[in-house]
Design brief:
By secondary structure, this protein is of the alpha+beta class. It has a single domain, classed as Nuclear Transport Factor 2, Chain: A (Roll), CATH 3.10.450. The chain is about 30% helix and about 20% strand. The protein has 3 helices and 7 strands. The protein is globular, with a radius of gyration of 21 Å. About 10% of the residues have low confidence. Its EC number is 4.6.1.24. It catalyses: [RNA] containing guanosine + H2O = an [RNA fragment]-3'-guanosine-3'-phosphate + a 5'-hydroxy-ribonucleotide-3'-[RNA fragment]. Keywords: Disulfide bond, Endonuclease, Hydrolase, Lyase, Nuclease, Signal. This is ribonuclease T1.
C-alpha cells in the first residue's frame, strides 16, 4: 500500500519536474512583430536582418535585395539612416530569390534594426509599420 502511494506521488510529480528542467523559452515563441496576420519572433527578425546585412556589407544582393530604403512614409525609426530593406518571409526561411512577399526588415549601415514594415494594409506601393 505504501509503495502504491509513493508510486502515485512520483507519477504525479514527474511532469512538473520535467517541465522545470526543460523549459521552452518564451522569447523563442513570442511574437516580436506582427505584420497583418503574420507573427515574427525576435529570432526570425534577427535572422532576416543578418542575412540582409551580410549581403549589403559584401556588396552583393539577391534579386536587388537588400536595397536602399528611402523612408518616403516618414517612419520615426529609433536608429539613424541610411536604411536598407530586406524581405522577411512568413515561411520562416531566409529570402534567397523569387517573390519577396509583403514584409521587410529595415536596418542601417551599422547593422542596427530600424524596424519591420509591410505592404499589407498600405495603399499603392507604400508601407505601414508592423506592430511590436
Amino acid at each position: 500500500m505504501l509503495y502504491s502511494k509513493a508510486l502515485t506521488i512520483i507519477t504525479l510529480l514527474t511532469p512538473l519536474t520535467l517541465a522545470s528542467i526543460i523549459p521552452i523559452p518564451l522569447e523563442s515563441r513570442a511574437c516580436a512583430y506582427s505584420c497583418a496576420s503574420h507573427c515574427y519572433t525576435k529570432a526570425a527578425v534577427s535572422e532576416a536582418q543578418d542575412a540582409g546585412y551580410k549581403l549589403y556589407s559584401s556588396n552583393n544582393d539577391v534579386n536587388d535585395y537588400p536595397h536602399e530604403y528611402h523612408n518616403y512614409e516618414d517612419f520615426d525609426f529609433p536608429v539613424p539612416g541610411d536604411y536598407y530593406e530586406f524581405p522577411i518571409l512568413t515561411s520562416g526561411k531566409t529570402y534567397d530569390g523569387g517573390s519577396p512577399g509583403a514584409d521587410r526588415v529595415i536596418f542601417n549601415t551599422d547593422n542596427q534594426l530600424a524596424g519591420v514594415i509591410t505592404h499589407s494594409g498600405a495603399s499603392g506601393g507604400d508601407f505601414v509599420a508592423c506592430t511590436s
